[in-house]
Amino acid sequence: MRRAWVRLDNASNIFLAARSAADPKVFRLSAELDRIVDPRALQSAVEATFDRYQLFHAVLRRGVFWYYLQASDLRPRVTAEELPTCAPLYQADKRHLLFRVLHHDRRISLEVFHALADGTGALWFLSDVMTAYARLCTLDHRDDHDHGDGNRDAAHGPAGPDPTGRGGAARRGEEPVADPAAPVHGLTTDSFAHYFQRLRRTRPPAVDLDADFRRAAAAPVDGERAAGRPPSGGRPHHRASTRARQIRTGAYRVKGTRTPDDRTRAVELTVSARDVLALARAEGVSLTMYLTAAFCQAIRATSPRTGRNTTLAASVPVNLRQFFPSTSPRNFFATIRVEHTYGRGPDDLGTVCRLLDGQFRPRATPEALAEKLQKLVRFERMPLLRVVPRPVKDLILRVVNWGSNRGLSVAVSNLGRVTLPAPAEDAVRGMQFHVSAVRPQLCAISHAGLLTLTFTSPFTETDHIREFARLLTAGGVAVTVGAAPVTEAEIAELSS
């Protein structure tokens, strides 16, 4: 039987060539619940959601000239969390699903290989899983009450084995977990090819960018809802300085002690979204640019080799769906590079914020993004390159990625403000988001008034995170810190 297949999109090819032991190109989205997770109800919710996401059925295959996604009959199995965060998902020549759903205590996590989907697509999937799960748990709770078993905690599920492997509603022959009005996400849609394969004469749809800035939530991973004029009352940008900094220069590269088994070091800071947003508004910049500037300041303050004429550069992903409508969960983002060279003028946090914001805005317009991506897609589709064997293409992409990495110090991804459908919104107490990283990275996501900032790194050092927290507390923001152990000493201390 012939199975549906599709070539990888423009953004996905680099993930295959650039993955490594320290950075397997996996990212994680998590939801913290108000009670212990019921694995059987979660399995039922995942299965119902999985059937509407044909993309998530795919496995990754290698052809002579390209990689491609192919439909499979594999089914996902929810598992308890045992591996380190963002453990590798893709293994060459092995047919595995490119995502996993995990649970631990009150937390449900979705991990995705980045060649499959971006953060927005993964968030759609997790949101639907959480909605289905909340409906199942609500129905289980009502059923227990009807049977006079109100003392049992519905989050733990019924006693005894469940031969179907599904949740309580499935045991009663009911399936209230799927929303019949929810869209079905197919496998083959490639938004890059749709919008950028040929020069489009029509202008992209208009977007109310000022409204996004007023809400100050940068759009989903991977992205920033930026590109408009600054909010009224914002400070003016230093345009001359900004133009001088638009020329790419060599960037400082953060170094440190590698984690013992190449696992990702992840540290979470939880803060009030309103309080941090107020700091960004005071500088007249978007939330993402404020976080990027604070990250650069923290790196500089804790890196002994930085000084005058040191350039710190950041990569910031932009969700293209805000300008070019797409319902595909496949990768559909672009990255924008911003930088600041210290010692050539004022280097305080406010100045750096405004300089970075001044670089970002003109590059995050629909016109600028379309021009950039049309060139990339045309290059990818050149007849000569299309007949180059895949291993040679991998080598070329590795060289390109190596050169790109040399021009970056950090990366910042802001998934923005998340509001879940009503059944899930009432049960979720917080959300988290982070990625495996070849360099220090900051990932942000906000939910129910809480902004979670997760720092990931291939290094054990956390001095820059402490400095970042100090910058926030100096601005009057209360910070809560959480971290998983990575070194032998930390693991031994946790076990004792």
From TrEMBL:
Residues 147-185, 218-244 are annotated as: Disordered. Residues 235-244 have a biased composition (Basic residues). It comes from the Bacteria. Transmembrane segments: none annotated. InterPro entries: Alcohol_O-acetyltransferase. PANTHER family: ALCOHOL O-ACETYLTRANSFERASE 1-RELATED. This is Alcohol acetyltransferase. It comes from Microlunatus aurantiacus.
